[in-house]
Write a sequence for this structure.
């Protein structure tokens, strides 16, 4: 197993219920899981690009990789998270018994705002870095950019993990197939 | 003259200006007049005739505008060369307010009010001519995202500025911070105006009192 420094190991302790296999999930939830796989590939490519920058490689190839990730983030991840909040999370919160504490939803909603901030700061710091004439100043900026990029990677990975192991199984267990069909229809409209 | 953090440092508006922008401090350069007179704007509904749920949102906007005016004054002070502890505290106050109040205000709108308005607009054919699924609500939701981005970048650039040893580099960073701050001011002001005069008015006209009360109950988790 590869060790990934941007994925916290303690996140694995958060799930206490048995996971539900992909085949047993509703097609709506399967689609969301499929999106997570694409999303993870983009995160891995971004992590590679960040490692290249850290090792001193700053050229057109790295620039292209970085742009690709930020375009993907703006066009896919933001709207994916927005849809999740609007259609699935709100429905889970509504259906939940009042005495049941499911704070994962609050965390996931906060993740959306944080990830938008971090991506914007990382993008702008990386863009600024090359415009700065003084070398010492440039390295301070690069340091900020890299820290933000790593935090963003960690946040998005934990976010995917929480959705995949807590939210989707919860939805599968607590909604009927008809209810999930209805949520799917609403998300399409 | 005493410094009033809620008053802008701009001169009074010229008498011939047709569009009045009421932001407690007169016309601001970050408030383009044409944005305040859209061609499709309906007649406004006075505050007293609004449902209490919508009045709550408008009240929050008023508090929100005061913070924007204070932030605008801070930006002007930085531009005038003042960078000290007072400025630092004022900047922190604004960004703290943004993180704690503005973001949650926006989330509440997105969760409870916007989906209902969007659904009604689409059903009534009040959408983009090019895309049946695109309404003014999409524009406002985009504003929410842009404001988070602009605030994040402005805050981090202001924070970075003081850490940079080289003067020329520092000024490049300050320039970016100020530009982002001004864009944020303009965006949030036009956004508030659009919500007050287009969205809340639309909700008041197109939903019954019972429907608005029901949405209000939802926001309280009842």
């Amino acid at each position: 197993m590869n060790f990934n420094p941007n994925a916290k190991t303690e996140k694995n302790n958060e799930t206490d219920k048995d996971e539900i296999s992909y085949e047993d999930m509703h097609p709506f939830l399967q689609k969301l899981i499929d999106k997570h796989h694409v999303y993870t590939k983009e995160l891995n490519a971004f992590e590679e690009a960040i490692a290249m920058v850290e090792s001193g490689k700053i050229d057109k190839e790295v620039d292209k990789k970085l742009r690709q990730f930020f375009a993907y983030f703006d066009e896919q991840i933001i709207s994916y998270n927005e849809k999740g909040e609007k259609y699935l999370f709100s429905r889970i919160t509504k259906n939940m018994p009042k005495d049941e504490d499911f704070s994962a939803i609050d965390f996931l909603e906060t993740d959306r705002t944080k990830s938008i901030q971090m991506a914007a700061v990382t993008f702008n710091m990386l863009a600024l870095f090359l415009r700065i004439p003084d070398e010492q100043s440039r390295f301070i900026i690069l340091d900020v950019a890299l820290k933000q990029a790593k935090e963003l990677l960690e946040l998005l990975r934990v976010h995917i993990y929480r959705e995949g192991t807590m939210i989707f199984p919860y939805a599968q267990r607590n909604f009927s197939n008809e209810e999930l069909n209805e949520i799917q229809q609403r998300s399409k409209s | 003259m005493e410094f009033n953090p809620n008053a802008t440092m701009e001169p009074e508006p010229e008498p011939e200006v047709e569009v009045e922008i009421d932001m407690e401090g007169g016309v601001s350069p970050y408030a383009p007049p044409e944005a305040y007179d859209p061609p499709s704007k309906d007649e406004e509904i006075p505050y007293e005739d609004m449902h209490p749920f919508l009045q709550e949102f408008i009240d929050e906007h008023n508090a929100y505008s005061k913070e924007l005016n204070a932030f605008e004054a801070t930006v002007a002070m930085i531009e005038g060369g003042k960078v000290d502890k007072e400025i630092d505290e004022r900047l922190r106050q604004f960004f703290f307010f943004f993180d704690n109040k503005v973001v949650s205000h926006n989330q509440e709108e997105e969760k409870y009010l916007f989906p209902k308005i969007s659904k009604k607009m689409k059903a009534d054919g009040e959408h983009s001519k090019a895309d049946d699924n695109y309404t003014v609500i999409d524009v406002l939701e985009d504003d929410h995202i842009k404001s988070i981005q602009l605030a994040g970048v402005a805050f981090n650039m202001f924070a970075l500025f003081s850490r940079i040893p080289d003067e020329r580099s520092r000024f490049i960073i300050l320039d970016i911070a100020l530009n982002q701050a001004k864009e944020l001011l303009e965006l949030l002001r036009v956004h508030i105006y659009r919500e007050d005069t287009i969205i809340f008015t639309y909700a008041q006209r197109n939903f019954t009192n019972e429907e608005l009360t029901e949405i209000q109950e939802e926001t309280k988790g009842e």
About this structure: Confidence is low (pLDDT under 50) at residues 1-25 of chain B. The radius of gyration of chain B is 19 Å.
